[in-house]
């Protein structure tokens, strides 16, 4: 097992990431910076469209600085990538989750490699949304600009009597 010293603040995290995970991961890595309340997710996830079996072995997750193997975290990441990965493929990632220490129990496994979150659904959805948003940003491409004028919007038709005489389309009486 190789040991690495911590990267100094403002250091060269990408260079260290390339040294540990390889340049192939670094070339496909999408940076994540996601925060909500007391939860913060930082790190990298490989573009699922270019994940190879060798890259899929890179699955590192840290909770409050401690390396973890957690099914909930893996499921959230896998679910975010599922429409881009094949059935036999796995996502590649290096993620750092920061959470209030009172919201996580690290005494689940004797070696402390597994955790139990007090609000597991919240943590799952937070990780899922963070990874999914980064993947969707990667897929977004600017639409081509059209020089053709757009048609004017049609007027809203009046409600029909058969529609139950609802009055939502009429202005409110003063």
UniProtKB/TrEMBL annotation:
Signal peptide, first to last residue: none
Give GO cellular component annotations, separated by semicolons.
mismatch repair complex
Q: Which Gene3D superfamilies match?
A: 3.30.230.10
Q: Where is this region: Disordered?
A: 143-174
Q: Name one GO molecular function term.
A: ATP binding
Where's the DNA mismatch repair protein S5 domain? 17-136
Task: Supply one GO BP term.
Answer: mismatch repair
Q: What is this protein called?
A: DNA mismatch repair protein
């Amino acid at each position: 097992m190789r040991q690495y010293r911590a990267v100094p603040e403002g250091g060269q995290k990408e260079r260290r990431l390339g040294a540990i995970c390889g340049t192939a991961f670094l070339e496909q890595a999408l940076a994540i910076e996601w925060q909500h309340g007391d939860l913060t997710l930082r790190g990298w996830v490989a573009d699922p469209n270019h994940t190879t079996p060798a890259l899929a072995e890179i699955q590192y997750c840290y909770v409050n600085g401690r390396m973890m193997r957690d099914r909930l975290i893996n499921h959230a990441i896998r679910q975010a990538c599922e429409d881009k990965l094949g059935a036999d493929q796995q996502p590649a990632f290096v993620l750092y989750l920061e959470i209030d220490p009172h919201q996580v129990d690290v005494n689940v496994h004797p070696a402390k490699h597994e955790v139990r979150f007090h609000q597991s659904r919240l943590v799952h959805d937070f990780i899922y949304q963070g990874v999914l948003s980064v993947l969707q940003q990667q897929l977004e491409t600017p639409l081509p600009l059209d020089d053709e004028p757009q048609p004017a919007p049609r007027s809203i038709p009046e409600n029909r009597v058969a529609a139950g005489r609802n009055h939502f389309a009429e202005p409110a009486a003063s």
